[in-house]
UniProtKB/TrEMBL annotation:
Keywords: Signal
Protein name: Protease
Organism: Roseateles puraquae
Signal peptide start-end: 1-25
């Protein structure tokens, strides 16, 4: 191998390493909490998400409460008889558009509200243990375009646990 070929290969390897390293972003600094309240025979959930970082992030809403409907079991429900099955809709999807992302500026907080009864057949009374967690299927920094599904870089999101006594 010639000296020039050796240098070219090393340069290519360094460039690939730099590209891969920059593509693997650190997790977005997010805090999440949720509350549950029984009202009028239904259970209302409120999710609060905050960007605790210093830069804007865009989060693919799919499968999260910030999609505005139950398209995934992002809350698990346990009653006296054990885990309750999710009865919400499930979706197959193509590549996302810009409108599918939730944009959160640094320090910004957003809320989403849903009715638990829309996704679970709840017993008429008794305590329920609710745990909220989901995966942001793609997290991108401000100014970047949505990526195809094959290039998504996701992040797990825990949002807490609530004991609801009814």
């Amino acid at each position: 191998m010639s000296f020039a070929t050796g240098i070219s290969r090393r340069c290519l390897a360094a460039a690939l390493l730099a590209a891969c390293t920059s593509a693997m972003a650190a997790p977005a600094p997010l805090s999440c909490r949720f509350e549950a309240a029984a009202s009028g025979g239904q259970v209302q959930l409120t999710f609060t998400l905050r960007n605790t970082g210093t830069t804007e992030v865009q989060l693919l809403r799919w499968g999260s409460p910030f999609e505005g409907a139950w398209f995934a079991p992002f809350v698990t429900v346990h009653g006296a008889g054990g885990a309750l099955p999710f009865q919400g809709a499930l979706r197959k999807r193509g590549d996302p558009s810009a409108q599918d992302y939730l944009r959160l500026r640094a320090g910004e907080e957003r809320q989403a509200a849903l009715t638990l009864d829309d996704a679970y057949a709840l017993p008429p009374q008794g305590a329920l243990t609710l745990k909220a967690a989901w995966r942001w299927h793609d997290v991108i920094t401000a100014g970047n375009a949505p990526r195809p599904r094959s290039a998504h870089q996701g992040q797990e999101q825990a949002c807490g646990e609530v004991l609801l006594k009814r």
